[in-house]
Amino acid sequence: xxxxxxxxxxxxxxxxxxxxxxxxxxxxxxxxxxxxxxxxxxxxxxxxxxxxxxxxxxxxxxxxxxxxxxxxxxxxxxxxxxxxxxxxxxxxxxxxxxxxxxxxxxxxxxxxxxxxxxxxxxxxxxxxxxxxxxxxxxxxxxxxxxxxxxxxxxxxxxxxxxxxxxxxxxxxxxxxxxxxxxxxxxxx
Length: 188
Hints:
mainly alpha; 8 helices; 5 strands
């Protein structure tokens, strides 16, 4: 369905990338409008792996706010655009349960299961707060919601595997650098 939908909307498939990665990820671009679409199948894999199986069957049109938050905060080489996306997401969604809320318990559970994901989130929160200081938004609301998420992660139980990996710390790389996919029309 996806393979026919995006071309019908004017997008071109990156045939080589899609052939090599089509079981987990697809890439389409709209050169006329300078847009690109990166489609992940079942599992979101960039710097870390977030398994979305069983999480996309809700009433909403896309992933939950918590999954969208993690899709950004899991990026080791996070950029300003991604940080602004996180700030917008946190501004628009309260912390709590339900389709429209960021479920801090879910975020904490995933971070407490994977030291590497947790470490990357820990590194990105100060970057997020630094970017927040440069924006004209309700900073206190964002800070309080981010603090609530961080508090849930800090309070979450860490299994032995997590604690052992934490002892190794930053001495051993804990993240992947994902393949950068470029449109053939995108300048080098």
